[in-house]
């Protein structure tokens, strides 16, 4: 079973007006892109062409943006972009306020300003990827990191954050409970809460910097597509909606002929974006949040991201976990295309397409045709290797070893 909602409010005046403030605040991302390009760990991540799968689905072309090795497989997620850039900006501000001189990222990687940066603590609530990115940022730039996880986050993801030096606190409850605890502790202890979720249209610097850094992934995808103006569909996974807002915004601004269909995919048990679309306003999910798509197990949307998504998104889909498992196996095996390591929170778009190949109703609902050209964003790799192997029957290393990327 799946749920589908076509957004008839898309690109209307009613949705355009609320979107203008967050769009304006996010319109200057080039400084973030240029800064991250200068970092020693930066390497452009691939956009795979999957012609065999495209033919199976009944479309003209299919591209998959692969984030499984962003800053190395140990991080392996687009969130390795946002938190490190936000922490860099935060610490540079602290050093400049104390010394009168703004440091470079290279200087912050040394012990030169450690007496200042070591007094700074950053924190976040996370299902794994954001916490891993934040812990990595704290390690390379010299501050302290505390991450909050909820009761369903796997031990493998917890241990990955601890290996990077984070203090990890597990709370009873779900993701939103960990968010509340992290924000309360940050306020009490004068820590800095680092997240892309915004309650003020991205006017605050930390969520804005996180979002601007995500545009590295979007710019890479657009640069590798032969002709972005020919793209008809872009699929993104949900969560609170922030990264999808960045992706859709980037394609909307670059595709100057026809605006692609922007398709949102969520777990059926964590469908806050789908519910918000159906009700025409932010609405929490009433699902259990029990899903293998750990990074998408969010009950509530980001208010600022929702304003953008309500304006740009054409379709909202909520799907079961078995669609994701099928997609992960298909991507790992390749079936004539490049084998890809896709984590549970990255494979939803492929799951939808594989079912559209055999379900004419779904194919038609998404307005797919033999001329469609589709982009999928796979925003994470195997963020828990044991879970990944249990689903695909392969280790990440086996899949990586079968490709030349």
Radius of gyration: 20 Å
Query: Ends: how far apart?
Result: 36 Å
Share of residues in helices: 40-55%
Number of distinct helices: 18
CATH topology of the largest domain: the name is Rossmann fold
For this structure, what is the CATH class of the largest domain? Alpha Beta
Overall geometry: globular
Main sheet makeup: 7 strands, mixed
Poorly predicted regions:
none
How many structural domains are formed by the residues?
2
Q: Which structural category fits the helices and strands?
A: alpha/beta
Total count of strands = 11
Q: Spell the H/E element sequence.
A: EHHEHEHHHEHEHEHEHEHEHHEHHHEHH
Percent range for β-strand residues:
5-15%
Tell me, rounded to a whole number, the average pLDDT.
Answer: 95
Q: Order of strands across the widest beta sheet?
A: 1-10-9-8-11-3-2
CATH architecture of the largest domain: 3-Layer(aba) Sandwich
Describe the secondary-structure layout.
Elements: E1 3-6, H1 13-25, H2 30-37, E2 47-49, H3 51-57, E3 61-66, H4 79-99, H5 105-108, H6 114-117, E4 121-125, H7 129-141, E5 144-149, H8 155-163, E6 167-170, H9 175-189, E7 192-193, H10 205-224, E8 233-237, H11 242-254, E9 261-267, H12 272-279, H13 303-312, E10 315-319, H14 321-333, H15 348-356, H16 360-365, E11 373-378, H17 385-392, H18 396-400
Helix pairs in contact: 1-13, 2-10, 4-7, 4-10, 7-8, 10-11, 11-13, 14-15
């Amino acid at each position: 079973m799946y749920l589908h909602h076509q957004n008839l409010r898309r690109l209307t005046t009613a949705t355009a007006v609320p979107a203008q403030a967050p769009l304006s605040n996010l319109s200057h991302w080039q400084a973030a892109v240029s800064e991250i390009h200068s970092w020693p760990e930066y390497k452009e991540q691939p956009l795979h062409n999957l012609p065999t799968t495209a033919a199976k689905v009944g479309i003209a072309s299919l591209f998959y943006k692969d984030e499984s090795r962003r800053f190395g497989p140990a991080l392996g997620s687009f969130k390795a972009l946002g938190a490190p850039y936000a922490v860099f900006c935060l610490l540079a501000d602290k050093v400049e306020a104390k010394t009168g001189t703004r440091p470079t990222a290279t200087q912050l990687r040394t012990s030169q300003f450690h007496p200042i940066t070591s007094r700074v603590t950053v924190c976040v609530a996370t299902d794994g990827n954001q916490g891993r990115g934040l812990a990595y940022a704290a390690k390379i730039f010299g501050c302290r990191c505390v991450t909050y996880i909820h009761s369903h986050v796997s031990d493998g993801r917890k241990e990955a954050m601890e290996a990077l030096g984070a203090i990890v606190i597990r709370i009873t409850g779900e993701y939103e409970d960990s968010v509340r605890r992290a924000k309360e502790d940050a306020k009490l202890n004068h820590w800095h809460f680092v997240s892309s979720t915004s309650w003020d249209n991205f006017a605050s610097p930390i969520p804005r910097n996180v979002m601007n850094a995500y545009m590295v992934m979007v710019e890479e995808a657009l640069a590798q597509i032969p002709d972005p103006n020919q793209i008809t569909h872009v699929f993104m996974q949900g969560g609170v909606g922030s990264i999808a807002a960045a992706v859709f915004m980037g394609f909307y601004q670059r595709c100057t002929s026809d605006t692609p269909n922007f398709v949102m995919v969520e777990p059926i048990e964590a469908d806050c974006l789908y519910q918000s679309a159906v009700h025409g306003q932010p609405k929490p999910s009433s699902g259990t949040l029990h899903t293998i798509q750990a990074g998408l197990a969010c009950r509530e949307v980001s208010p600022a991201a929702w304003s953008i998504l309500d304006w740009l998104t054409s379709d909202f889909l909520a799907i079961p976990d078995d669609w994701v498992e099928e997609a992960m196996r298909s991507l790992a095996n390749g079936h004539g295309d490049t084998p890809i390591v896709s984590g549970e929170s990255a494979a939803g778009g492929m799951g939808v397409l594989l079912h559209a190949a055999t379900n004419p109703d779904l194919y038609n609902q998404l307005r797919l045709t033999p001329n469609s050209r589709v982009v999928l964003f796979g925003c994470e790799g195997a963020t828990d290797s044991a879970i990944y192997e249990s689903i695909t029957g392969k280790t990440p290393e086996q899949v990586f070893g079968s490709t030349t990327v």
